[in-house]
Amino acid sequence: xxxxxxxxxxxxxxxxxxxxxxxxxxxxxxxxxxxxxxxxxxxxxxxxxxxxxxxxxxxxxxxxxxxxxxxxxxxxxxxxxxxxxxxxxxxxxxxxxxxxxxxxxxxxxxxxxxxxxxxxxxxxxxxxxxxxxxxxxxxxxxxxxxxxxxxxxxxxxxxxxxxxxxxxxxxxxxxxxxxxxxxxxxxxxxxxxxxxxxxxxxxxxxxxxxxxxxxxxxxxxxxxxxxxxxxxxxxxxxxxxxxxxxxxxxxxxxxxxxxxxxxxxxxxxxxxxxxxxxxxxxxxxxxxxxxxxx
Length: 294
Fold this sequence. Notes:
Layout: H1 10-16, E1 29-30, H2 33-43, E2 50-54, H3 60-66, E3 71-76, H4 82-88, E4 95-99, H5 107-110, E5 117-121, H6 127-136, E6 143-149, H7 150-156, H8 165-173, E7 174-182, E8 187-188, E9 195-202, H9 210-225, H10 231-239, H11 243-252, H12 266-276, H13 280-287
């Protein structure tokens, strides 16, 4: 068994196994020990808690998590990393390795208990899809601690006036906050942009009833599809309404039809849903909305 110092040398490990980071998989390994400790501290892991790590890489973060949590389920897609991962994590009996694509795996089958946390340095290219999958999972985590591209972190945590579809989607399920910034030099190889750690504490239940979520996201997608247009025009185009129907629905919700989607806060989107529900045919259309199109 390989004997390791406390800090892993990722470049040396890659050379040892004849590996190179795969750009297609967005492999930028977080290697700075100070940054790793900040990620773990942001999670506030209790000794009794279970952690789902997505993108174990070479186990740099996994080892830190294993020292804090009762159990760590570490998912890794790249089969090339499997051998070094098994060797590196062999001393940690509370780590369960899973090889596969987190976007395809059934999360409830990975977790042993009813409550768990998600801690991950996730590839930038799956950020939105992964967050959506975690937030909509039947068995939701208590909180997410995600290392993401700095710009994406700021979008997730944006407030009224700067809202995005991503920020709005997160706000439905939980409260996000930007914990700390991580410079590109903390990764190997360094990405072209800086990163940030976001923590999302999930609400016990979404802020909207389950049977209204489809309509909510249909309205939000329509509103943000053409950001430069007023809500009057974007909703008319996206919802298949006439301009008059869009104006009436917005006005009934107390929203100026000339405003743009990014200026609405979560409360106003909820009012818009209630207003749209007054038109039965639109509610019926929403019930058939395809979630996979989001």
